[in-house]
Amino acid sequence: MEDAGTYTVVAHFPNSEREIGFGQLDVYEHLRVPVLIASSYGVIENEEDVVLTCYTNGLSVQWLFNGMNLQFTNRMKLSWNSRRLTIDPVKREDAGVYKCKISNPMMWVESRPLELHVLY
């Protein structure tokens, strides 16, 4: 990480000419597989809430539901860093498989699937 920064390259040519160039080197931390945990894995419809937390070293968090980008509703709230998703109250259509996906400009990694059951 400490190697990131602006670098100068100087090319010396046989005819005594030289060219100078500049470049930016960005270094990204290796992303570890995020861990997704729920406050409860089986909740009662219209009576309980659930909090899904994505534990990660990544900066950018995306939420997936049944293999697609999660379509947020007015019952869903994200924490300031997008690592915590609260659904309040839970409805039967919220039952399914959740994942969190983290990324940086070089790669992305998904958590293992978490299956939420809604009792009604």
Number of continuous helical runs: 0
- Major β-sheet annotation: 6 strands, mixed
Number of domains: 1
The name of the CATH topology is: Immunoglobulin-like
What's the level 1 CATH class? Mainly Beta
End-to-end Cα distance, whole Å, is 50 Å
Quantity of strands, as a count: 12
| Alpha carbon gyration radius | 22 Å
Molecular shape: rod-shaped
Proportion in β-strands: over 45%
Helical proportion, percent range: under 10%
Instruction: Please write the string of helix (H) and strand (E) elements.
Output: EEEEEEEEEEEE
Structural class: mainly beta
* Architecture (CATH level 2) name: Sandwich
Query: Can you tell me the residue ranges where pLDDT is under 50 for at least 5 consecutive residues?
Result: none
Instruction: Give the overall pLDDT as a whole number.
Output: 94
Q: Could you state the CATH homologous superfamily?
A: Immunoglobulins
What characteristics describe this protein?
120 residues; mainly beta; Immunoglobulin-like; 6-stranded mixed β-sheet; 4-stranded antiparallel β-sheet; rod-shaped
